[in-house]
Fold these 4 entries.
Entry 1:
Amino acid sequence: MTLCLAQTPMQPQSQLRTDLTGTWEVIKSKSDKVNNPLGDAETKAVIVQSGPEIRITRSYSANGKELAQQIIYYGDGRGETYQSPLTGNLVSSKTKWEGNELITRYSARRTYPGRVIDVDMIEIWKLSKDSKILTLTIRTVLPPLPMLNEPGGIQITSGPRDIRTVYNRASK
C-alpha cells in the first residue's frame, strides 16, 4: 500500500484577515456621542467583504429622514476616493490591514476658532474575539502644538481624540 501526502501551501498573509461581513446595529449606550447630527444619527452598518474589497453601507436616521452612504475600501492599500457624508468634500484615503484591524488614514480640514487646519484622521475597525461586537474608533491627530499655540493662534492642549462607535452583530 502506498500512501501519498500532499502538502498544502500556506495561505498568503493578505487572505488571513478578519471577516467583517454582516449587518451591525449601533449600540448607542456604548458609543460616544459626537455632537454632530450625522454621527449621532447612525443606526447600522452593513458590511460585505470580498477579498481586499470591503463595502460598508452606513445608515442614519434623524428627524424622520433616512440616509445611507456606501463607501468601498480596499484593504490592500490601493486607496479610495469618496464624498464625506458630513462635509460633502472629497476624501482620499488609504486602507490596509494591520494585524486584525482594518485601518483607514486620510487628512481632513477642520475649523477651530480663528483658524482652519489640516488634521490626520485614522479610522480603526476592530472585531471582538467572539465576533459579536465591532468597534469603529475614529482618531483625530492634531498638528504639532507649537504651530497651534503661537501668539494670536488657537490654544489646544489635548492630544489625539478618539471617538468610538460600537456595533452589535444583527446578522452574518
Entry 2:
Amino acid sequence: MGKIYSWDENPFQDFLLILVMSGADISNKNLEVDIYVRFLTILEYFSENKRYDEYLDFEIKKNDIRFKVIPKNILTALWLSGISPQNFENVLNSNKFRTDNGEYRFNEKTKRLTYKIIETK
C-alpha cells in the first residue's frame, strides 16, 4: 500500500516534483547532470558522512507519462526514500539497514527496496 505524498518530508521527491510540475522531462539526458548535482547538494546538507558522492548512483526512466527513479545500490535507494544511514560500508556490504522497528533490504537484481517490520519483545 502506498503513502500519500507530503510536501517537505523528502527533499529528493520535492525537487523532482517541482521539475515535473514545471514541465521538465526528468528522464532527459540533458538534465541528468543537473539532477545529480542537486542530489549531491541535498546530501551534503543533510548527511554527516561526506563520501556520498562515491555511492550516489541512479537512473531515471520514462514510461508513457510516468517517471521511474531507479537506484543502483541500497544507499541511493535509502537516500531517495529520505533515510540517511551513518555507516555506509556496513549497509552496502549487507544490503540491509535496520531501524528500531524494521529492516530495509535492497534487491540488486530488481533494484527494489523492501521494508519488513520486526517485532520486538
Entry 3:
Amino acid sequence: MTADQLAILIPTRNRPAILRRTLEELLGGGFGGHPLLIYDDASADGKAVAEVAALWPESRLIRSETRAGQARGRNVLMRESPCEFALFLDDDSWPESHAAIINALEVARADALTVASFHYRALADGRLSLPPEQARTRAKCFLGGASLFHVPTVLSVGGYRECFIYGYEEPELSLRLWLAGHRIEYLPGIAVVHNQFYTPDENRDYREYDYLYAQNSILMSSLNMPCWYGLPHGLIRSVRRSVYLRRNFWAKVRGTFSGVWLSFALWRERKPCSIRKAIEWSRPSRKSSG
C-alpha cells in the first residue's frame, strides 16, 4: 500500500498554533509521504495558516475568503482529494500509529467499507471515546475527525449538507449513508489523539454553537424522515439538548424556530425514508461509533 493511495484532509479556522502542533505530530509519526489538503475557512490570519501548511512537503491549502462552515469545507476537500480514500482529521487530532492507519486502509478496501471510524483518545486525560474492549462492529455514526472515507461513495450521497455549517453534520451524513446501504464500521485498536482544549485563539462562539445544534438536531430528522415523524422527533432531540445544556437560552430558542422553518424552506431537499427505517434508526439502543 503506497502513500499516494491515501490523502489526509483537514479543515481549519483561526487555529494556526493548534494546526501546527497537529502537522508536527503527523510528520513525526511518518505521515509526511501522504498528500495533505487543508481547507482554511476564512481564518482572520490567512498568512499564519499558510505558513503552517508550508511545513508539509507539497501540501495544498484551499482558502475560502468568506466563511462557509466545516460541512462545506469537508465537501471541498473530498472533491479536491487526489486519492480514492482519505483520512479525515480535525485540526487538533492525529493518529497514534501510521502502520495502524495503513492496515485500516487495507481492511476498508478489502471489505468495501464506506467509512472506517476509530477511537478518539483525549490528550489531556487519556479518555477514550468508546470502551477499550469494544470489538469491530457495524455502526450508524462516525467521528468526523477520526475516520477513513471512501471518497467516491460518500460523495455519491451528496456529502455533507452544507446548510448545517457545523453541528450534527456527521450523524446526518451517517444517516444518509446508512439508508443507502453503505457500510460504516468501527475498527478497534486504532486511536486518534484529540488535542482538544479551549483558548481565546480558538474563537469559538458558543451562542452560534448552541444555535446551530438546536437547529440542526431538528433538520437531521425532518429532512430524512417522513415529516409527521421526523419533525417531532427532531424537536424532542433539540429541546432535550437545550434543557441539558443550560446556557444561551435565547440562541437555542432561535435555533429551534430556525430548524422548524428550514424543515419547510428546504422541502425540495428532503429525501424521506420509510417509517420503518426511521423507527429503526431512532431506537436508543443502536450501536454507534460517534
Entry 4:
Amino acid sequence: MNFLKAKTSWKNIEFIPFKLCIASAYLVIGSFFHSFIQEHLAIFIELFILTVIWTLYLWIKKMRQQNNQ
C-alpha cells in the first residue's frame, strides 16, 4: 500500500486521458440510469458547481504557493 503514499507531479497534458476516462464513465453511467439522473438533476448540478469551485480554489492556492517559493 506504499503506492498510495508516493508523491508525484503531473503535467496538465498527462491528465487528458484520465479526464477522458472519467468523462466516458459518467456518460456510460448516465445512459444506464437516465431516469434516476433526470429526477435528481438539480442535486448533480449543485454538486458539479461546488466541486468546480473547490477545485479552482485548490488550484489557485497551489499556484500561489509555487510563485512564493
